[in-house]
Every structure is written in structure tokens, then in C-alpha cells.
Design goal:
Layout (H helix, E strand, L loop, with lengths): L1 E8 L12 E8 L8 E9 L3 H9 L10 E8 L9 E4 L6 E4 L2 H4 E2 L18 H14 L6 E4 L5 H12 L3 E6 L2 H10 L4 E4 L5 H8 L5 E6 L3 H8 L2 E9 L18 H6 L3 E4 L9 H13 L7 E5 L4 H8 L7 E5 L1
Parallel strand pairs: 8-9, 8-11, 9-10, 11-12, 12-13, 14-15
Antiparallel strand pairs: 1-2, 3-4, 3-6, 3-15, 4-5, 5-7
Helix pairs in contact: 3-4, 3-9
The chain binds NADP nicotinamide-adenine-dinucleotide phosphate.
Amino acid sequence: MVICKKWTLAKPFIGKVTPDNFKLVKEDIPEKLNDGELLCEAVYLTVDPYMRIGAETGNAVGDTLFGEQIAKVIVSKNAKYPVGSIVRMHAGWRTHTLVKDAEKEISRSAEMGDLPLSLMLGAMGMPGMTAYFGFLELCQPKAGETVVVSGAAGAVGSLVGQIAKIKGCKVIGFAGTEEKCKWIKEELGFDFAYNYKKTDVDTALKEAAPDKSVDCYFDNVGGMFTVKVLTHMKTFGRVSICGSISNYNDTSVPTGPLPFFSILKSQLRVEGFIVSRWYSRWEEGETAMLRWIKEGKIKYKEHVTEGFEKMPDAFIGLFEGRNTGKAIIKM
Ligand SMILES: NC(=O)c1ccc[n+]([C@@H]2O[C@H](COP(=O)([O-])OP(=O)(O)OC[C@H]3O[C@@H](n4cnc5c(N)ncnc54)[C@H](OP(=O)(O)O)[C@@H]3O)[C@@H](O)[C@H]2O)c1
């Protein structure tokens, strides 16, 4: 028997996430497998903001929290995945997984070259594809245009800003600390970086994008911040609604001011997306990201938490802005 540890939902997420939302449970997994089966041990896991809203509909109390992981095959009765193979799968917050149907349960791995495996959960995984497709497809940026990114020092935002620079845009990023702003400006090449906790968005955009000159806005945070950004957009501006983290812990429906008049006046195209819509094109996004990383045009940072026991705390940290770049759990 292998003893698997897993994090389950102890009580539904309502409002701010706290440690008592989680319960660590042990489960015995037999090591004697049937033909075709695999036993895998997690190497890297990920915490992502979507788990906060996804759990409201996708996790009942007692369920293992869902999420992707990179794991190593430790027992195998499947010739395609010998012992030692590295796999990516949506196994949830668990240390060990019995894979019964490898074809269904294991996702395609990215061609990583000599990059760290954990990047398959970041720039070469779901957040990377979110930045690549969510920005390029919906914002359709052109050289010389002005792009605003919120959540700009996070997993997705830090990549969006760099892709915008590759496309020849002027990039304005908003993040929650001076250190984060310094990183995106000095190391990632953003043209302007503002700490939204210290500088009001109107003041910032009057300086960095005067006279309503924002062409594209990639929105990770939503709420009043986004309502204000929309008032600085050019006619026919494009807005990609990726996330709304400032609202995920809300217990009541946010009230106005509403953004619709700005959308009407400036004839904006505002579109939300879920990244799985481009799943059939994942390989195209991975190829581009791999090339840009190797060329040094895209840099990445990981906020690594060591230890499975600390996973809930790392998740809570996303809502407190503790991470710069991608939040990763290392076993
Ligand atoms: N549509 C999709 O398919 C899709 C896919 C992936 C992610 N997303 C969304 O994209 C956004 C970013 O995800 P990520 O994985 O890259 O996370 P992340 O940005 O790496 O981490 C979350 C960050 O959000 C910021 N934040 C937390 N509370 C905030 C608040 N009240 N107001 C403003 N900022 C706040 C914090 O940074 P600061 O220090 O800067 O506050 C924190 O570090 C999330 O909204 C997520 O749900 C959507």
C-alpha cells in the first residue's frame, strides 16, 4: 500500500478563504496494479485563482480539491508510461494517484526541451496559453498600440505584458507592490508600472496613456479597477476579460458604477473567455512560448512553496498578493 495525502474541501468557500476550508485526509492506494494502470507520485502541483470560483460549483464538501499536477510514474503496468515517466494530469490536490485509464486521465505533455518541468504548470501550461490566446486572439494588438495589463506581476499578467512588448506595443502594468512593479519594469521591459495600492488608476493612466489612448486592456482583476480603465480607452478599443480576482471573495453582487456607458461611448469590443476554448490549438501556443523563452524574449518567475502540507496557505496567498509570477507547490 502507498499512503496518499489529499486536501479536501472541509467547508464551502464563502467570502475570504481560510485554513479551516481545508482538511488533510489520508487514503491507501494498492501498489498491485491491473494491466494498463499506473501509480503516480506528484512532483509539482499548482494553485490558481480559478480554483476559488470553480470549487463553488465543482467541489462538494469532502471532495478532493481539483487542479493539475506534474507527477512521476512509480509503478507501471502500462508500456507507454514506464516507471520514471513524467506525466501532466488533472489529478487534484493529492500526493499519489492511481491512474486507471491513462489515455483519458493523462494530458499531453508540452515539448519542454531543457526547461524546468514546473513550467508545464506555468508559462508552458494553462497560464501561458491563457496569456497567449486570451491576449492575441481577443485584443489583436498591433505595433505602436498601448496595452494595459492588470495583475501584471502574476502568472498570466507577466506573460501578457511581455507578449505585448514582443508585438511592439507600449505596455502599462498594474501590480500590488513596489517590488513587483520594479520587476515588471526593469526586468520584463514594461514601459510603465504602477502600484495600484498607492497610485489611483485614473492618475496613472492620465500620465501613461493621456487623452484616452489605451487601445487594449487585458483584465485579470475586474471590479472598480476595470470600470476606471474602460474610461481611458480609445474608440474601438479591445478588452479581454480574463479574470476578476478582486470579486472572487465577494459575498454580495457588486453594485455600480457600471461600465456600459464607457463601452457604448468608446464603441469598445469587450469579450470574456475561458482558455479551454483554444485547447485544440495548445501546441501552437506552446511552440511560440518555448521559442520566446529560449530567445530570452519571455522571462518567468516562480513563487515556489515547498511541501504539500502548505498548499492551502499557498492558495490563500494568491488573494493576498504573496506570489510574484507563477505559484507552484514543490513536493
Ligand atoms: N479566463 C481564463 O481561462 C483564465 C485562466 C487563468 C487565469 N485566469 C484568471 O486570470 C487572473 C490571474 O490569474 P493568475 O493565475 O495569473 O494569478 P496570479 O496573478 O499569479 O495571482 C493572483 C494575483 O492577483 C492579485 N490580486 C489578488 N487580489 C487582488 C485584488 N483584490 N485586486 C487586484 N489584484 C489582486 C495579486 O497580485 P497583486 O500583488 O498585484 O495584487 C495576486 O498575486 C485571475 O483572475 C484568474 O482567475 C483566467
